[in-house]
Design goal:
heterodimer; A: 574 residues; mainly alpha; two-stranded antiparallel sheet; 18 helices; B: 32 residues; 1 helix; 0% strand; rod-shaped
């Protein structure tokens, strides 16, 4: 590890922390309708409602809200599926790419509508510009906005005195897209263009190399997709190499800003939560829990990647950091990013639900791979994706408050809301459905020939490839460990099932909790109630997350990265 | 793998979530 690396991490942490309060306050103003919006923008918003026939003054109960989400995604998945199937006869296809195969089109449609962005394809050889722009990019906006909208309903559940409604999905979706995601994306896209990211509808370039060979250089409308890919927690790259590709992420500065974009909204929403419940300290407590878990994971990944590879030690290779080399494990990493930024990017992209990558996670040390998987397995509450991180963390808060209530013998309550059996039932349902798919599907794949056929490596590393893929899918992350050939009907369909379940089977209980909380009403906190803004509660929350996650996933991790770490120490490679 | 099969899978998945919503209502608000 180098001091430059730690300075980079410290500056990153300072910038994210500094953005929490202003951006969180802005988002709170947008979703509560208290922010002052320029008239031309409100005219656009009003036009959207008139066009869609939405009465913006009419709120929905949780069931209506859930069905609105469901219908919206049904149309979104169908539209994206159709677009890919007929892209060969549509415009903006200068490379004359053919229609996408049905199982791959289904996988991709579900992937982007659920904010996962798992990609079983290489973008530059599979999707036309129209599919990238009108399909992938549009879904990146809408799925990100949906995540924030769901989180806001749960916040309203905790914040409202008494009500039967949790908000209006169409209004939440429109306002978050128009006033939060679009403006930041435009600025970020312009920054990326300045850094060298292409934004063109021109065809790929045929270049002649110095050796006289012909090389096709892919390009396209990359910057506009790149910005929202990072901001919305989507992560689906224009190119197969994602943010390791120089046209998606040209240098260290663009890489640094891309990591900031990944965690920006997820972090800020903690402050939005604090403001909406009337006590910003509550938001800072959630942010503190996220920060402790994030920095702990980052320290492990950075230390693990910066250390010499023990398997190379007998070869007397110089693996120390110095002026001419980064040192440590540089396999699968870009020289322009180095160890520290690659570790930061990998930790951020798995702690959030983004899933973009600037290095090949398959080439990370086993211990690092364990942390990256654990980040996703903990329901991506360590900042998490826009909205999904906050509502995931609030689910753990419900469990933590319930456990604390049992320990001290008082009725569990949080911010004046009684946490009863129904709230805990729904929280546990949401928290258990993801592990069921993360653990169940690799178990199936590990015993079926069609599952084993996709592996590139044997032993625990091969198992890690499968475990990572289904973890990434069910946790709606979308990053790939690489090494697994997932573009087969078996993996396309089972991963689509994991992504679908990981999104909708979590969202529904969250909305149900929001509905129960608003209808029961909020009372002033009882005397003697456990304070939920101090260090004690932060420690309890972290303990709950780690224990629940650890008990659930340790056996599977022991078969994969833990076994591989010990094998590596014994000079056994797979 | 045909388009019809994929459409049926999508329809079945969404119908399943519809049933899941009903199950959540039943679980939290059992009939008297």
């Amino acid at each position: 590890m180098t001091w430059q690396g730690w300075v980079q991490i410290a500056v990153f942490a300072a910038l994210i922390t500094a953005a929490v309060k202003p951006l969180g306050g802005y988002i709170a103003g947008i979703v509560t309708g208290e922010a002052r919006i320029p008239r031309p923008l409100t005219a656009i918003e009003g036009g959207v409602y008139r066009l869609a026939g939405v009465d913006q003054t009419r709120e929905q109960n949780w069931v209506s809200y859930a069905f609105a989400v469901l219908w919206f995604h049904l149309v979104g998945i169908a539209a994206l599926y159709l677009l890919q199937r007929v892209q060969n006869v549509l415009p903006f296809n200068p490379q004359a790419l053919g229609a996408v195969a049905p199982d791959l089109a289904l996988n991709t449609a579900v992937s982007f509508a659920t904010n996962t962005s798992w990609q079983s394809y290489a973008g530059e050889t599979t999707l036309s510009y129209l599919s990238q722009m009108a399909g992938i990019t549009v879904q990146s906006f809408l799925s990100g906005a949906t995540g924030v909208a769901i989180a806001i309903t749960l916040v309203r559940g905790f914040a409202r005195r008494t009500s039967q409604t949790v908000g209006n999905f169409w209004v939440d979706l429109t306002r978050i897209t128009l006033y939060v995601l679009l403006p930041v994306s435009v600025v970020a896209a312009l920054f990326l263009v300045w850094q060298g990211v292409p934004q063109t509808l021109g065809p790929y370039v045929n270049a002649t190399t110095l050796e006289g060979a012909n090389q096709v250089i892919a390009r396209g409308p990359v910057a506009s997709q790149e910005a929202i890919k990072l901001l919305s927690g989507d992560g689906g790259g224009f190119f197969n190499a994602n943010s390791a590709h120089p046209f998606e992420n040209p240098g260290a500065l663009s890489g640094f800003v891309e990591i900031l974009l990944i965690l920006l909204i997820g972090s800020a929403l903690t402050n939005t939560f604090g403001r909406m419940v009337g006590d910003e300290r509550q938001g800072w407590a959630l942010f503190a829990a996220m920060a402790v878990l994030f920095l702990t994971g980052l320290a492990v990944v950075y230390a693990s990647e910066a250390a010499p590879n023990p398997a190379l030690a007998p070869l007397s290779i110089d693996q120390a950091a110095g002026p001419s080399q980064a040192g440590g494990n540089m396999e699968g990493k870009e020289v322009r990013f180095g160890i520290a930024q690659s570790a930061l990017f990998a930790t951020a992209t798995t702690a959030s639900s983004d899933g973009a990558v600037d290095a090949m996670h398959d080439s990370f040390m086993p211990l690092s791979g364990l942390v990256l998987m654990a980040n996703m397995m903990l329901d991506e509450v360590i900042v998490g994706g826009p909205g999904s991180g906050l509502f995931g963390m609030l689910l753990f808060v419900i469990v933590a408050v319930f456990v604390a209530g049992l320990m001290i013998g008082r009725t569990p309550e949080y911010l004046g809301n009684k946490i009863g059996a129904n709230e805990v039932k729904m929280a546990m349902l949401a928290l258990l459905v993801v592990p069921a798919f993360i653990l169940g599907l690799p178990a199936v794949a590990a015993v079926l020939p069609v599952g084993l056929a996709g592996l590139s490596n044997a032993g625990p590393h091969g198992f890690s490839e499968m475990l990572y893929a289904y973890t990434s899918g069910a946790a709606t992350n979308g990053s790939a460990f690489a090494g697994l050939n997932a573009n087969t009907p078996f993996y396309n369909l089972t991963l689509a099932a994991a992504m679908f379940a990981g999104r909708f089977l979590v969202i529904v209980p969250v909305l149900c909790i929001a509905g129960m909380l608003v209808s029961q009403g909020r009372a002033p906190a009882a005397a003697g109630a456990m304070p939920t803004h101090g260090l004690q509660f932060v420690a309890l929350l972290i303990g709950t997350i780690v224990i629940v996650g650890g008990l659930t996933f340790f056996p599977a991790l022991a078969l994969g990265p833990v076994a591989e770490q010990f094998a590596m120490r014994a000079a056994i490679a797979y | 793998m045909s388009d019809l099969l994929m459409v049926l899978l999508i329809a079945a998945a969404f119908a399943g979530v519809g049933g899941y919503i009903c199950a959540c209502i039943q679980l939290t608000h059992p009939p008297e």
